[in-house]
Amino acid sequence: MIATALAGCEDRREDYGPEKTPTATARPTGTSKHTLMVDGKERSYLLRRPAGLPSRPAPLVVMLHGAVGTGEQAESSYGWDGQADRGGFLVAYPDGIGRAWAVSRDCCGAPARDGIDDVKFIEQLVSAIAKATPVDRSRVYAAGISNGGMLAYRLACDASTFAAIGVVSATLVGDCPNPRPTSVIHIHGTVDKTIPYDGGPGKRDNDGTGPVPAKIDGPPVSELLARWRRTDDCAPPTVTVKDPVTTSLAACPDGRAVELVAIAGAGHQWPGAPGPKPVAQRLLGLDQPSTALNATATIWQFFAAHPRQG
């Protein structure tokens, strides 16, 4: 997916290693570009700070692009800027090295091959933003699609920063022996051929030979969410069917929740997003996004209702 140029971004370099301390200068409003050093590598991200943001600490959403995407592409594709302007929260759009994220030894692309610690990058990104702009630490969230959604699951497995994650068309790969109690909303199309709803390797680029080499062989989505309900010690889910959407929502202690939103007939795309251009759809075999719901609005509504308590 090719990103369009983002005009007017302000480029700021940051190094928040132990030898340097950031200034307390607030971020500019609108979208600005930033870098920081993590394990000797320069990492980049965009930050959206709505005009008129209240002076009190604001929620923060970290939006993780899919494989072959970028932060710029994620900002332009999924409608989070408008949602942030209406909801009064910050959005960060990080860039994966080589347009991918490391979520296991076999996935995905150059970051997995080179042992990149993307969990560390995202945690340091949150800290960097919070040092310059007031962030409500009880309302820090991660959202992602495909490889980005897989990183969101890794964050819930390996970090304690996030109150909730919002996942679209993704799965959990690699070990997760000590998952953190975290609210989860997972949106998935039932005919997704890239990361199948019923589990398994799928058919596109998942054999380790595609443009972003990856070996993805996840569990059925229903089993993955059942596992997370056990992690969160949830009550049995309540199931609601409004064709073509089936929602399974489980209430959990301390205000947490685990929600699965299955969309019958939907493929591997962000529901409610603009569709791919015909040329890209033909060359890359991209699915048309479902119009059954707006994933961005649905995920934000879930996030807003589930801050971390205690």
TrEMBL record:
InterPro entries: AB_hydrolase_fold (IPR029058), Esterase_phb (IPR010126), FaeB/C/D (IPR043595). It comes from the Bacteria. GO terms for molecular function: feruloyl esterase activity. GO terms for biological process: xylan catabolic process. GO terms for cellular component: extracellular region. It is found in: Secreted. Pfam families: Esterase_PHB. Keywords: Carbohydrate metabolism, Hydrolase, Polysaccharide degradation, Secreted, Signal, Xylan degradation. Residues 22-33 have a biased composition (Polar residues). Residues 11-33, 195-218 are annotated as: Disordered. Its main location: secreted. This is Polyhydroxybutyrate depolymerase. It comes from Planosporangium flavigriseum. The lineage of its organism: Bacteria, Bacillati, Actinomycetota, Actinomycetes, Micromonosporales. The gene is lpqP.
